[in-house]
Amino acid sequence: MNLPNKLTVFRIILIPFFILILAVPIFSGNVTIAGTVIPNARWIATIIFVVASLTDFLDGQIARRNNLVTNFGKFADPLADKMLVMTAFIFLTAFNKVPAWVIAIIVCRELAVTGLRLIIVENDGQVMAAAWPGKIKTSTQMLAIILLFLNNVLFSAIHIPLDQILLYICLFFTIYSGIDYFVQNRSVFSDSF
């Protein structure tokens, strides 16, 4: 297993810790940053999320630079991203930080694209790699999640709801990239009818 794949597996391993920190009330209390109160669990979970997000950036960079792109990486990397992002969005919905309808659209798109990837693998034996709209979607999702968990602390002093702005930008790219994947791979469906 090469380094990019190890980073992907590490990201997957971080997800249960992320869930435990948020679900088990062992970290009571709050931390105040720039006058904004953030529960300790969310602060710690955000650190875990940032580390996991950085592994996403690093594994792709290393894989492309060193020609270490594998079918496992093309499949597991986006799967790890989806698991991490959907877990975070589910908790943010539970914390009333994001509207449930936005997350429903994101989850439906992620499941639909994952299904499309499986059909392509079954038909062609090749794993569909992430395209640029999907990469933008993932990046904006991860940035929005970080700001949402931190109560937009980085931009609260200038009263710009960047967390909400990024949420809707990532929703746009979620829909756009989902449509793009299906349009680019429409032959999969025309061949099966």
Question: Explain this structure to me?
Answer:
The chain is built from seven helices and two strands. The chain has 193 residues and is mostly helical. The N and C termini lie far apart (39 Å). The model has no long low-confidence stretch (mean pLDDT 86). A two-stranded antiparallel sheet has the order 1-2. 73% of the residues lie in helices and 4% in strands.
Explain briefly what this protein structure is.
This protein has 7 helices and 2 strands.
Percent strand equals under 5%
From the helix content, strand content and strand pairing, which structural class follows?
Answer: mainly alpha
Low-confidence stretches are none
The strand count comes to: 2
What Rg is obtained from the alpha carbons, in whole angstroms? 18 Å
The description of the largest β-sheet is: 2 strands, antiparallel
Strand adjacency order, main sheet = 1-2
Assign an overall shape.
globular
List the secondary-structure elements in sequence, H or E.
Answer: HEEHHHHHH
Mean pLDDT: 86
Helicity range of the residues?
Answer: over 70%
Distance between the termini: 39 Å
Q: Treating each run of at least 4 consecutive H or I residues as one helix, how many helices?
A: 7
